Amino acid sequence: REHNRALHEQQEKLRIKRQLTNNINHEIKTPVAAIQGYLETMINNKDMSTEERDSFIEKCYAHSQRLTQLLHDVSTITRMEDGSNRIECESVDLTTIIEEIVSDVAMLPDDKRMRINTTLPKPMPVRGNSTLLLSIFKNLTDNAIAYSGGRDIYIKAVESEDNFYTITVADNGIGIDDEHIGHIFERFYRIDAGRSRKLGGTGLGLSIVKNAVLFHGGNIEVYNRKVGGLEFKFTLPRAK
Ligand code: ADP
Q1: Residue 130's CB: how many other CB atoms inside 10 A?
Q2: Best exposed site among 101, 145, 150, 233 by fewest CB in 10 Å?
Q3: Ligand 1 within 6 A of CB of 190
Q4: How far is the CA of 115 from the centre of ligand 1 (A)?
Q5: Checking phi first, is residue 192 left (phi over 0); if not, alpha (psi -120 to 50) or beta?
Q6: Please, where are the H alpha helices in the chain?
Q7: pTM of the entire structure?
């Protein structure tokens, strides 16, 4: 029976991997096709106006940036899945990481800025990988700024008795329709591209967040707040 279970797990892993490869191929085709289309038009129309040519070049550039982001995200996810031995862990002060993000957001132009309110223990030592830990908070705050339409982000952490921190990252924006709540951690899941203001979103951000939390031995859940907006609640292990 043990053997059967191991076999099943292995098959399941393979299935997920195959699905991911299919998704990636699909997602990469779009920007590549666009770049090719713009370049072909430019090659075949030598007498294009400079303005039009410039705008095509800019569009190519935007698509190439999207490609870069996509490849970067995918490599983060596969690195986490390929096994923890390729990811270094140390004691990281989460408060420092979060404060870095707070000052980055404060530098953003008015229309892309939200107020970040933090309630954190100081210091807040976590055993983990600083790049992955940063990507958790970066993705959550970037998303709140891109999609929530709210004014505030609240980041709060408390020590729970089992050597973990319980952390919430919430916003006071529009939240997400309940039908999507169960899916938003899925890879490439995006809600109505029309409403997303964030250009170049890959649909991988929350998948990275979830994988990073699981990688550190924590759990994550998400819900709509009664007062409006979205709340992510997760745990991360305290460093001894
Ligand atoms: P993306 O790369 O598109 O940002 P994510 O996995 O990070 O992908 O997010 C998935 C979807 O969840 C987004 O497309 C967006 O519609 C929705 N979403 C994420 N965070 C929020 C938020 N704070 N408020 C409202 N919608 C959100």
Answers
A1: 17
A2: 233
A3: yes
A4: 19
A5: left
A6: 2-44, 50-81, 94-106, 130-143, 178-181, 205-215
A7: 0.81
Is there an atom of ligand 1 within 6 Å of 188 CB?
A: no
Burial 153-186 (b: 16+ CB within 10 A, else e): bbbebeeeeeebbbbebbbbbebbeeeeeeebbe
Over residues 149-185, the pLDDT tens digits come to 999 999 999 998 889 999 999 999 999 999 999 999 9
Q: What are phi and psi of 237, to 5 degrees?
A: -75, 135
In Å, how far are 46, 50, 58 from 53, measured between CA atoms?
A: 10, 5, 9
pLDDT at position 11 is 83
Q: Is the shortest distance between the CB of 147 and ligand 1 below 6 Å?
A: yes
205 lines ligand 1 (CB under 6 A): yes
Q: Is the dihedral of CA 184, 147, 122, 109 positive or negative?
A: positive
pLDDT-derived band at 85, boundaries 50, 70, 90 = low
Longest dimension (CA), the chain: 71
Angle 196-198-200 from CA coordinates, rounded to 5°:
110
Percent of the chain exceeding pLDDT 70 equals 93
What distance in angstroms lies between residue 190's CA and the mean position of ligand 1's atoms?
Answer: 6
Task: Write the residue with the smallest CA distance to atom 20 of ligand 1.
Answer: 143
User: Does the structure show a pLDDT above 80 at 87?
Assistant: no
Q: What number of other Cβ atoms are within 10 A of residue 191's Cβ? A: 15
Q: Is the CB of residue 125 less than 8 Å from the CB of residue 92?
A: yes
- The answer to whether the CB of 159 falls within 8 A of the CB of 121 is yes
As a whole number of angstroms, the distance between CA 102 and CA 97 comes to: 9
**What would the two tokens of residue 228 be?**
């409006």
